[in-house]
Amino acid sequence: MRGGSFGWDLSADGGQRRRGEDGERAGRGRKTPNRSSGRAGLSWQLRRAAVPLRPEVTRLAFRVSCGHFVPRKGPGWAMDSKDMLDKRLVRAAKTDTMLGMVLEGTLNHLVTAYGDAIVTPIRKQVMGGDKMIRSFFWYPVTSFLRVARTLLDDRRLGLSCDELMSGCGEHAFSALLESPVGKMLGMFGKGNPQALVSNGPYAYTLAVSFGERVYTRKSNTSADVVFTGDLLGPSFTIAVYKVAFKLVSSVDATVTATVTNDDGSDFIIHSRW
Fold first, then answer.
1. Which domain holds residue 11?
2. Basic and acidic residues compositional bias: what residue ranges (predicted)?
3. Could you report the per-residue pLDDT of 182-205, keeping only the tens digit for each?
C-alpha cells in the first residue's frame, strides 16, 4: 500500500456488513473482521479514501460546528473564517465600539489593497453614506466587520478571512501608535518587548470598548495574553502584535495564537522574541 491512502469506516448495523447472501467478504481493498474479534455489532472496513498514508497523525483534532478545528495552533491551520466572523457579528452589541482612528486605519487599508471602486460603495452602504470618520469618536465595531464580511464574498478578490483580517490588523493600530497617546504608550515598550506586552491590555482599552485581556509573563523572552470576548479575532490581533513589536520595541517577534472557542472571540496570543 505504499504511496496509497486509507480511511476507516465504522458501521453500527447490528452485525457484519456483507456484500451478498452468501456471506462474501468485502472486496478488494477492504477487510471485515469476524464476530469472534470481540467487536460484535460493529464492522471495521479498511478502504481507499482521501487521507494520505503519511505520518501526520498530529494533525487530527476535534471538529466544531463551524467546520474548523478548535483549539488550533501552529502553521497550517486557519485562524479565522467567514463562519466565525458571522458568529462574532451576531455576538456584537450596539455598545461594542472601536476608536475612530482605528476604524479609519482599517478602511483606508482596504481601499488601498482592494481598490476604491470595490470598497467605497460597500462602506457607504454599511455606514449610511460617505461620512467623515473623526479620530477620537467611537464607532460600532460592526461597521468594520460588515465591510470585511462583504468583501470576503466578492469572488473577484478571492480572499481568505485570515488574509483580510491580518492586513487590517497590520494597519489598524499604526494611526494609534502615531497619536500622542500612542507615542506615550510607545515610550514604555521602547526597546523592552516584555513591557510592551504587559501594557498591551491597557492599550487595548484605549482603542476598543469590548473584551478582556490578561497578560502572563512566561520567561524573559516570552509572554502570553489571554483574550476573552474579542470581536476582531485572532488573525487581526496577531498582526497588531507583530507590528507593535517591530515599530515600538524594534524586534521581529514570533506571534501565534491558540483559538479556544468556535467563533474566534476567545484565544491566547503567544509571543516570543
1. 5-59
2. 15-27
3. 777 778 788 899 999 999 999 899
